[in-house]
Design goal:
The complex is a heterotetramer, with two copies of chain A and two copies of chain B. Chain A is α/β, with parallel strands linked by helices. Chain A is built from ten helices and eight strands. The N and C termini of chain A lie far apart (57 Å). In chain B, the strands form three sheets. In chain B, strands 6-5-4-1-3-2-14-7 form an eight-stranded mixed sheet, with helices on both faces. Chain B is globular, with a radius of gyration of 26 Å. The N and C termini of chain B lie close together (10 Å). Classes of the chains: A alpha/beta, B alpha/beta. At the B-D interface, helix 11, helix 12, helix 13, helix 17 and helix 20 of B face helix 11, helix 12, helix 13, helix 17 and helix 20 of D. Bound molecules: thiamine diphosphate (TPP) (2 copies), iron/sulfur cluster (2 copies) and magnesium ion (2 copies).
Chain lengths: 284, 588, 284, 588
């Protein structure tokens, strides 16, 4: 059992009003509700505002390189499938620099969760367009405005038959907490794309902008209906559905890999040279 | 006795099988064997060869001239007919290659026909060729039969018998039709002939290439996670480890790219197991940022870099030693690194073990630099000494952690080495960061912590690691007039040249296989040896003498001469002898 | 006007029976039919069997790195939108090593074409699984068989609202030639994923395997219907639809970028120091 | 006269605006100005400062002690109150920072109140602060008024007037309330005071940082394609070029990652325009393979690497010089490379031009290595000499190509430089390959072509490129006893230290800004100068003396002393003077 206080970390260096602060709060609430203790979780993060997340709570932490949360997380899970592994990334981190890993993590379907703090902009590097920035947004680097379509991570994940795909909004903390729980509880890869205002650099997709649009999906939506999920995923305009968009029941990699399936985590399996020495004989 | 057999043909014709079988049986017969391969970056066709050298004295290099040229196609005849030793023979099948050659150097073995006649299967023509070679050498087929039994056992008795019949017929044909064959091979040393394989460390005849040597070294070092993106000449290690994962508790994962590979290897190590990745120079380029991550987070990781001619894609299946300074200086910022450059399969085995041990002991990335030549070359050995692979788990596990009141992943210590704990194994949190961080692992920006961390991570550890580095290997005459220096895969050819020239001249080799931290000149006398020599030569398979540059940067020493080869091919023994001024000797 | 003979290059080093040979032939036929001359085309290729393609025909050629065809192609097109630019890649090249570029090229929608020679395996490096390898295939590197879902590039491209998405089969040379024409004629980014047997390393998806399954999409299919396209794209089993799967009419980047839209290609625009020297004044 | 003004506060408080306005107006007033910045990797909050130095003598570094500390928050007071020069003053607003300080070093300027009173807008408190500083210095507001006019013209007359009123009130308050202020600033040099900006090359007072200097150099060199992935401290160049693309025919594209960026830059260059990319050390790691591609395909490309403290993410917004050997040896295989490491904005401008010219002339990748310190530091200059930026189009265009019977992209030539043609501009095909290739650009595997290509691409070109490299800059006494050596961004601080110490001791600087190919010691006497000196010091903003390592590898020369700083901060003038043994002098 844990309490909110157990998850107090460094003082956040985020701007006042930043959506990250609300995400952090939802996260701590989810942890406490789930009864997870700090040492029972490994958070892997990238570089960006979102990447600072684990320092602002308490957990085992690997704050790695920009864009590389997923390879690190997946390897940790392969080595220790007894641990909960959460990857925390920015939209630039996960869909820009790390886009290739995202594609292939969706395929591997290891039981890890990724929170993408999607502020539709590069925050830490001061406001350039990210892969999810709206068409037309003018920045110092995009003087004519963004001239192409944003990437829709939710639709992409559904297309790739992801294990679990959800969209949240930092401003709806209660729903967000539930989505975090559901994502962490899902057996397999879970993507939670969290829309989050960047009060400093994103003057288009503001808190109000999201608030007006974000709309929890109705109970009638069946997340196992891939086509319905895909249609819902494509909605990103006057209405943005939040909630669990898609869920599939694919087996996870750790369940299929004979070395670890139904076994102790690899890190707990004993090693002795005597077990492998006979391999030398093949060369005589 | 010192014979070279070159088997040439197109990719897909099975020349590798012929070569491998010959090499293995010569080894079992108690000979000293050395093989190397020359192949194109294509799957079918083209021109490739596999070269096997057998001798009753130790050999560790390839020679330019051949004694038996097994030609599976016309191109092989055309390309190599002028590369025969006196008395050398060209074996071919005029039916298969649709060309008849006259001359007493040619032996036309109707392999296809014999295969049909004896086994009813033209696919056995390669077995006929193996038999023919043994026939020409006047060797018995006993060991071959045992080998065929092992190889084809799974396919059933009949296949084994067909192969043996085909081989016998080939041998018989050669004995009967090669009156001009003047090869003479001593009887196999009885103790070893057909001897059953012996376990690690025990004497016996072993045939091993650089790739499998590294794989075995990793396996015995407790490597539990291997990940890579395929790339010649490193893919062999991936395949070796994948095969091991069917038998041992070890996870092998093909990554979507090299960036994923290095980050996965680091993630796995953070989680608590020994991990490794491998690639070639081009793929390593994509790992460079990850190397820096290992440096900053002090995460042990072993990285194998198989060199091949570059820049860019270069010559994908050939050899070069041009990535030394690149690997040495790879990645932004300053942090300790360990670089091993083995010169033989034996060294590859032991140095892989040392790389794993030091990587974990000092929590740094350790490299094994090899190249296509060493990766693919097979050496016969008496065995491997597995005792030389240290295995000590330096990590804090649940039991150790339970005893601690507090834990800081990057705590300042006298040695600079902080305690490395398994995350999740206790209530202590294991926190690390690619940003500069404090003792706990949390990100900081202040000047003082930064300075202390650089001191801890780099300045304190570096001298300790240097202490672990062995001096270069000295081999040859005392007080030599000529010192030949090499690093990595040129070991074998230099050693043999020194053996040969040592009879008539005062010559020695200095071979560097533990390259970085650079061996301390105070710990051995290599600088004096160099200083006193009349002539010093640095032999490198590259164009810019990278090792010589490193030696100058580290010690100030400047070589008199440089021998560089950068056409994608390894040094042949004769080439080196020629260069060293001993071209006259033919009795090598 | 050109003839087949004009496109004769080096002798292919591919294995006899390799699907690449048929793809090459369809390509030359398309060139001749379209009346394109060798110098009017730039082919950018990666590393792999497919990457050797431009050497086996005649064209301006940039045979670059493994996985990097798309950044090179896109830059060439930005600099010279007067030239036709074709990228030729393998499935490993484009969806493995180059996956991130693929995602972002779909977004940019520059008028270039990519042929992916999709043999569902790494050919040149001797038979490891590629991102499109079928689940279960055993290789030297995947001793337990591939343990996760293949990437479906066609579905992914439809999800990303690609300009033009088609699937071809090397064994249907006539259709393939038409698809190549259509792809090259499409204004915008066009993906042509070409199923191709690798006779040496892919013993599952053989010529016969493809032949039995590949089925041209009916005339009733409307490629501008994204949902229908997506449904079709997901079919990859007993029946594999070939043909134009999806087509959108998004504007291309070169039409929207003011420096080049409705202008001479950048490479033809004159430069003189006199035009820019006044920028120094801003710092006085 | 030599005053240092430090403006400190939180990110987002506007301290950069205050600093920038002061720096610009001091420059216009005819003073010599030097600024540098110290900031955290966060968008709001934390502690940052901007430091402006003005003098009537040339200045090119920052000092540790300050004369006026403008404190926008309490932290600034606490952190820096002990870093005042004699007579130094701390300006603050007790209302804003909610703290009142006593002592004659404090000047409490009610900026917020004055802003409300004079302009009805508390946002003008920073303008009040600027006015207060001018008041303390006893300077007139004439130039500030002109500047405010320029800056706020777009916002309308009223805003301009409000700002002017706020500034005047601030100045007046300071004049009236700072009796203890003993600053004395000479009248602006009349010729230049408020002078209207003059065009390139003409004299005038210019204020320029390293980032914009590189941008201007690229623009004037005909760079038509810039692509990058954002990364501190290189993003400024991306923004500069993006802004230019609104005015000039130039395409700027933000890439999805650094791998895409370098490959795009190479693609654009292949297509026929000059192209460039920029990043920091970590992003450059991802470009390494692309560098090798440029080497193999002989495609000109210019790469800017802004160094920052590493490994890994390190200290993202701070400074270090630890990527020299990394960039120098980056990428697998061997090919020529050019490395420029400018020491000032003026050098950055010219060397960017030289990099573009040589990259295209020799068809190689050329680097500009800078760092956060140089990127953000502003220097006042008389102007830039645009004549020094060569512009020659070395490529074969339609007209040239029409005259050729045949064309081979990688033809063997005496110089090793092959003709570089625009693809599509004629019927001649332009073929190139990352694999080893023949003269036409098609892939090959044979040993001879490989050797000839290495000779062409590397061995022939390298000495020619070396011929183009200028010797290091020698500055100071003849036959000096002490020689201080530096490279890149330490130029300014070393130069000033030599100026100061030169009065009393025999000292000189050798500064290297054209680093690779390493300047030929035969072409100038730098080795003799070093050899003759009693003491030689190598000053580097890193921990492992990378430049000293390079000097030893290239020349054998070993320095007597090394001064290393690796806490993420640049050298302050006093630090260097201290080290050089001249700490006693306070009149600097
Ligand atoms: C290899 C590399 N490239 C670039 C950077 C610089 N960088 C740091 S964070 C960032 C993007 C931040 O955007 P996002 O991922 O959306 O996170 P946010 O700050 O918006 O939360 C970039 C480009 C880096 N650290 N490493
Ligand atoms: C950076 C890098 N990594 C790995 C390789 C090795 N490599 C060459 S081709 C290839 C994959 C080939 O597969 P694919 O792209 O599907 O092409 P195919 O040969 O099947 O046509 C690989 C892994 C390389 N050249 N460069
Ligand atoms: S810049 Fe944006 S994302 Fe970053 S902390 Fe500030 S508000 Fe949040
Ligand atoms: S290996 Fe496969 S893809 Fe490569 S050439 Fe042979 S058949 Fe074609
Ligand atoms: Mg973001
Ligand atoms: Mg393939």
């Amino acid at each position: 059992m844990s309490e909110l206080e157990d998850f107090r970390g460094q003082n956040p260096a985020w701007c006042p009003g930043c959506g990250n602060l609300q995400i952090l709060r939802s996260f701590k609430m989810a942890m406490v509700e789930m009864g997870i203790e700090p040492h029972e979780l490994i958070i892997v993060s990238g570089i960006g505002q979102a990447g600072k997340f684990p320092h602002y709570t308490k957990c085992n932490t690997f704050n790695g390189l920009h864009g590389r949360t997923l390879p690190v997380s997946q390897a940790i899970r392969l080595v220790n499938h007894g641990m909960r592994v959460l990857a925390v990334a920015g939209d630039g981190d996960c869909y820009g620099e790390g886009g290739n890993h995202f594609l292939h993590a969706l395929r591997r379907n290891l039981n890890i969760t990724v929170f993408v703090h999607d502020n539709q902009v590069y925050g830490l590097t001061k406001g350039q367009a990210s892969p999810t920035t709206d068409e037309g947004m003018v920045t110092g680097t995009q003087p004519f405005g963004v001239l192409y379509e944003p990437l829709n991570p939710v639709a992409l994940a559904v297309s790739m038959d992801a294990g679990f795909v959800a969209r949240g909004f930092s401003g709806n903390q209660e729903q967000l907490k539930e989505l975090m729980r559901a994502a962490l509880e899902h057996r397999g890869f879970s993507l939670l794309d969290i829309l989050q205002p960047c009060v400093t650099y994103n003057k288009i997709n503001t808190f109000q902008w999201y608030k007006q649009r974000c709309n929890p999906v109705g109970v009638s939506h069946d997340p196992s209906d891939r086509e319905a999920a895909w249609r819902l995923a494509l909605e990103f305009g006057d209405r943005i559905p939040t909630g669990i968009i898609y869920r599939s029941d694919r087996p996870t990699l750790e369940e299929r890999l004979p070395e670890i399936a139904n076994q102790e985590p690899l890190v707990k399996q004993p090693f002795s040279q005597g077990d492998v020495i006979s391999e030398l004989e093949n060369f005589f | 006795m010192d014979y070279t057999i070159r088997i040439g043909g197109q990719a897909g014709q099975g020349l590798q099988t012929i070569g491998a079988v010959l090499a293995k049986l010569f080894t079992r017969a108690g000979f000293h064997v050395f093989t190397h391969q020359d192949y194109m970056s294509r799957i079918r066709g083209g021109h490739n060869y596999y070269q096997v050298r057998l001798s009753d004295r130790p050999v560790s290099s390839s020679r330019s001239l051949v004694d038996i040229l097994v030609s599976l196609d016309k191109t092989t005849v055309e390309e190599h007919r002028d590369e025969l030793n006196a008395g050398g023979m060209i074996v071919y099948d005029s039916e298969t290659i649709r060309q008849k050659y006259e001359g007493e150097n040619f032996l036309d073995v109707p392999s296809r026909q014999i295969a049909m006649d004896t086994a009813g299967n033209r696919l056995m023509e390669n077995t006929v060729a193996v038999g023919a070679v043994l026939g020409m050498l006047g060797m018995s087929l006993e060991i071959l039969e045992a080998l065929l039994n092992e190889v084809f056992a799974r396919k059933g008795h009949e296949v084994v018998e067909q192969n043996i019949a085909a081989a016998s017929a080939g041998a018989q044909f050669a004995r009967e039709n090669c009156s001009q064959c003047a090869f003479s091979v001593p009887e196999p040393r009885s103790a070893e002939a057909g001897a059953t394989p012996a376990g690690g460390g025990a004497p016996g005849r072993m045939l091993l290439d650089g790739t499998n040597a590294v794989g075995l070294g990793a396996l015995l070092s407790g490597c539990r996670f291997y990940t890579a993106y395929p790339m010649t000449p490193s893919t062999g290690i991936l395949n070796f480890m994948a095969a091991q994962s069917k038998k041992h508790s070890l996870v092998v994962e093909q990554a979507e790219d090299e960036i994923a590979a290095i980050n996965m290897a680091i993630g796995a190590s953070y989680a608590g197991v020994r991990s490794m990745t491998g690639t070639a120079g081009g793929g390593f380029a994509l790992m460079v940022e990850g190397v820096s991550l290992a440096g900053m987070t002090e995460t042990p990781v072993v990285i194998y870099v198989g060199q091949r001619p570059a820049p860019a894609t270069g010559l994908p299946t050939r050899t070069e030693q041009a990535d030394l300074l690149y690997v040495l200086h790879a990645a932004h910022g300053e942090f300790p690194k360990i670089i091993m450059a083995p010169g033989s399969p034996g060294q590859a085995f032991h140095l892989t073990g040392k790389a794993f041990d030091l990587a974990e002991k000092y929590q740094v990335p350790a490299f094994i630099i090899s190249d296509q030549y060493l990766a693919d070359s097979e050496w016969s050995l008496d065995g491997l000494d597995a005792e030389k692979i240290p295995y000590h788990d330096y990590r804090l596990r649940a039991g150790d952690l339970a005893k601690l009141d507090s834990y800081k992943r990057h705590a300042y210590t006298d040695s600079g080495v902080s305690p490395l704990a398994e995350p999740g194994a206790s209530r202590h949190l294991v926190v690390t960061d690619s940003d500069e961080h404090d003792e706990e692992g949390h990100l900081i920006e202040d000047a003082l912590t930064r300075r202390l961390m650089v001191e801890k991570r780099l300045l304190k550890k570096m001298p300790l690691i240097r202490e672990e580095i062995s001096p270069p290997l000295y081999y040859g005459a005392e007080n030599p007039e000529v010192v030949v220096v090499g690093w990595g895969s040129t070991y074998g050819v230099i050693k043999e040249a020194v053996d040969i020239m040592g009879d008539s001249s005062s010559i020695a080799m200095l071979h560097f296989s533990e390259i970085f931290p650079f061996p301390d000149p105070e710990k051995s006398d290599f600088l004096e040896v160099l200083g006193k020599a009349k002539s010093t030569v640095c032999v490198e398979n590259n164009a810019t003498s990278q090792f010589a540059q490193l030696v100058r940067a580290e010690t100030g020493f400047v070589f008199d001469r440089h021998l560089n080869k950068f056409d994608g091919r390894p040094f042949m023994l004769e080439e080196l002898l020629d260069y060293l001024g001993d071209a006259g000797r033919n009795d090598v």
